[in-house]
Amino acid sequence: MDSQDNTFEQETMSQSQDMAQTPSDIAPETIAETPSTKEDTAEAVPNAEAEINLQPETDGLTSADAATSVAGNDHKNYKTKLEVLERIKEMAQGEEVPSKEEVDYLKTMFYKFHNAEREAQLKKFIEEGGNPEDYRYSPDEQEEVFKREMGVIKERRGQLFQEQEALKEKNLQRKLEIIERIKAMTTSPEEVNKSYPEFKNLQQEWKELKLVPAEKANELWRNYQLYVEQFYDLFKLNIEAREYDFKKNQDIKIRLCETAERLADEEDVISAFHQLQDLHQEYRETGPVAKELREEIWNRFKAASTIINKRHQQYFENLRAKENENLDRKTALCEKVEAIAAAEYPSAAEWDTHSKEIIDIQSEWKTIGFAPQKMNVKIFERFRAACDLFFGKKAEYFKELKQRYNENAEKKRALIEKAKEMMDSTDWKATSEKFVALQKEWKTIGVVPKKAGDQLWAEFLEACNKFFEARNKANSDTRHEERSNLNAKQAIIARLEALAVEGGDNVQEQVKELSEQFNAIGHVPFKEKDKIYQAYRTILDKLYQEFHISTQRKRLDNFKSNIKDLAKKGEDMLDNERSRLLRRYDALKQEVQTYENNLGFLNASSKKGNSLIDEMNRKVEKLKDDLKLVRDKIKAIDAENRTREE
After folding, report:
1. DSSP per residue, 207-243
2. Cα(66)–Cα(62) distance, integer angstroms
3. Measured on CA atoms in the order 262, 264, 266, 271, is the torsion positive or negative?
4. Distance (Å, rounded) from C-alpha 385 to C-alpha 432?
5. H/E element, 527
6. Distance from the Cα of residue 315 to its chain's centroid
7. DSSP structural state of residue 16
8. Residue pair 8/153 in contact by the 8 Å Cβ criterion
9. Closest C-alpha among 230, 213, 228 to residue 178
10. Alpha-carbon distance 72 to 81, whole Å?
11. How far apart are CA 206 and CA 174, in angstroms?
12. How distant, in Å, are the alpha carbons of 60, 506, 553, 581 from that of 633?
């Protein structure tokens, strides 16, 4: 809003008070009436100060807060930008003259919805994987219509401003004429009774003439008041008419005092303040009361006014304190986002976790009100810059990650092509070695997205299985060897059974040695496999139970027993199992490190602390046992692979 509009609004609020201001500045004012020094004069308001701000103290508020503060709760609660635009069109195309408060309020609400839409569009763009720096806002047709209609309103208000200026000048001339006429009446004491009706008409006309130029208002009022008092005080007015006027004015001013006192209970401080200004205007326009009551009534009215003024001042002090609190909260959020944005994150999961954290912080930001006007834009720009930095770095990370995924996928596709070229080969030994080499190379290649990785692995595994199944089928004529293996394993089972009966000091070592011999023996006939393994496990279970051989050893021995079955299905099955065990080994190792790190932070000074440390130590020992078992299983697979290669 330009200076012309500001002047227009200020004068429509203050000048309509019929020149109520003192010669001081327009901001918080002292409104006073000056009593006459003569004993028999009509009433004037006693010298006293009552601070009545003609404009709300909006310094330090945002435009939205200012509009809301000035208008109180009188404005409609608009829910959409279209509703605001329809109201603007209605004002621009209708005959009404919109107030500055409502125009400012509509402008604030429109851009509140407008900015919220833009933020939603940007958020959606970012969530869909877009780079915030690449985002461009599309033109808004509603905004163009809004600006055009606001231009119409501004032009109309400018025209009204000119009309009001002309009206002020006209009213000024007429009031000067009224003053001159009243002045002339005071020079004819003998005609005062006859002039009284005309004098009352002139007073009524004076009240009806509202706006005058601000720079003339106080002087005009003082001259008018001077000659009105002279009319009453210098000439003996008809006592009955005078007493009647005094009584009528007394009733009006007492009513104004009571109304001002009730405003102390008004919940809306801003509304109470503006109502008080209206009461002061009416008080000034009301004629005098009996001289002995003037000071008493004015002091009562001034006391009620002081209460409203203090509440109004306290309201804006609280508002400024709340804004400073909001600034502190927003500064803390900026520092939090800046710390997140400054860090580096090695995995996609960590980037996603901190993205959610940033989004939660942004949601919290929206719940905080405005900061002081001088800092509101700056703190938001700081917050937005930190968010942009984080999401920019995230976009760059995922761009590089996608490139690595593509490179890894291409490497795995190359291995698949090689596997498909060899899967029909009958050179069993040489081709087996090549397939083993391919499988090892496959494991060295980095990860790819899970969906693509599963598909590539399925293709690679299909080619490997086709070759190894053909090789196993070609080597099926091994029954004689399997029968010999069966006899050897039966002999070991017999020795284990004898050991269970005889016992001894080194039972555990003997069991371990016999188990290793059993596992080192090759395949047995398929029909006898389950039976011989069942007999082997049964005697082992008995030995474990009777001689307290560790459970870990039992699990390892059982695992070694199953290795032969896995190997028979193909080397790829052993490799798959080995890969699984390696992943399990890494996970257990990481878990042990985590517990050991946590132990370093615990305080063992309390009984509860000691108990927790003991519990964690037991968990660490258990994890280390599991870690050793997994390591032994991997060694067993490696031993089986070496045996098969030999």
Report:
1. HH-----HHHHHHHHHHHHHHHHHHHHTTT--HHHHH
2. 6
3. positive
4. 58
5. helix 526-547
6. 27
7. G
8. no
9. 228
10. 21
11. 9
12. 73, 24, 11, 8
Residues of 70-87 as b/e, b for ≥16 C-beta within 10 angstroms? bbbeeeeebeebebbbeb
Q: Which two tokens stand for residue 45?
A: 């308001």
More confident residue, 515 or 215: 215
Evaluated on CA atoms 619, 621, 624, 630, the torsion sign reads negative
Strands 29-30 and 51-52, bridge-based pairing = antiparallel
Q: How many CB atoms lie within 10 A of CB 278?
A: 13
102 in Cβ contact with 150 (< 8 Å): no
- Provide, for the chain, the percentages of residues in helix, strand and coil under a 3-state DSSP scheme, each rounded to the nearest 5: 80, 0, 20
Higher pLDDT, 225 or 26: 225
Taking the whole predicted model, whether its pTM rises above 0.70 is answered as no
Give the separation between CA 56 and CA 36, rounded to whole angstroms. 33
Distance (Å, whole) CA 104 – CA 157: 13
Single-letter amino acid code for the residue at 619:
K
pLDDT at 508: 72
Question: Contact 543/500 with Cβ under 8 angstroms?
Answer: yes
Phi, psi of 480 (to 5 degrees): -60, -45
Helix (H, G, I), strand (E, B) or coil at 305: helix
Q: Which residues pair with 52 in a beta bridge?
A: 29
Plot region of 524 (φ>0 → left; ψ -120 to 50 → alpha; else → beta)? beta
pLDDT band for position 360 (cuts 50, 70, 90): very high
Amino acid occupying residue 545: Q
Neighbours of 346 (CB within 10 A): 8
Return the SS3 of 244: helix
Q: Is 548 helix (H, G, I), strand (E, B) or coil?
A: coil
User: Is the pLDDT confidence value at 552 over 70?
Assistant: no
Residue 609 has pLDDT above 90, yes or no: no
Cα separation, 9 vs 97, in Å, equals 12
Report the alpha-carbon distance of residue 177 to residue 169 in Å, rounded: 13
CA angle 475, 479, 484 (to 5 degrees): 125
Mean pLDDT (whole number) for 38-65: 32
CA distance 593 to 47: 85
What letter does residue 638 receive in the DSSP assignment? H
CA–CA gap between residue 598 and residue 610 (Å, rounded) = 14
Residues 544, 277: Cα–Cα separation, whole Å: 100
C-beta separation of 100 from 92 below 8 A? no
User: What is the distance between the alpha carbons of residues 34 and 298, in angstroms, rounded to a whole number?
Assistant: 11
Q: How many CB atoms lie within 10 A of CB 174?
A: 14
